[in-house]
Structure formats: structure tokens, C-alpha cells
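Q: What would this chain look like folded?
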Amino acid sequence: MPHLVYEILDLLAALLRLLGMIVFGWGFGWLTLDLLKKTAVPYVQIALFLGFVGLVVSLTVFISPGALAGFVLGAGAIFLWNSLPKKEEKED
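A: My prediction, written as C-alpha cells:
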């Protein structure tokens, strides 16, 4: 096969990896925030925070920078979205 086909497949694989890590970051961030809100035990909250930080550190060491950027975009988006003020519904 021509060299161009391999380059196109590499580009598609990198984009798919980026999108997958965005979704994974969104899901893992949402799960962490949801469990942090539902638990009142400080030890569980500490374990959740350290688990999230440990995942970020291990991803920094073991995956490509593009995939890490996707994870950070997904997790950062859910953290920002979750920190927005909630809109109250108006009753007529």
C-alpha cells in the first residue's frame, strides 16, 4: 500500500484516540464529582481525589500527549460545567 494510506490511517487513529479520551475524561470526571457529592465520609472523598490524581499522573507517564490532552479537555469540561450556577425553573 502507498505511504499516504498509512499516514491517513495514522491520522484517523490519532483523532479516534483523542475523541475516546475526551469521552473517558468526561465520564471519569463526572463519576468522581458525583461520588464526591454523594459521600459525606472524608476518607472516601480523599480516596476519590487521590484516585483521580493518580490516574492523571499515570496517564501523563504512559500515554501520548494528544491522548492526555483529550482526557484533560473532557475532565476539565465536566468540572467547569458542574461549577456553573444551576438555573431555577419558574413556576407559573
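The chain has three helices and no strands.
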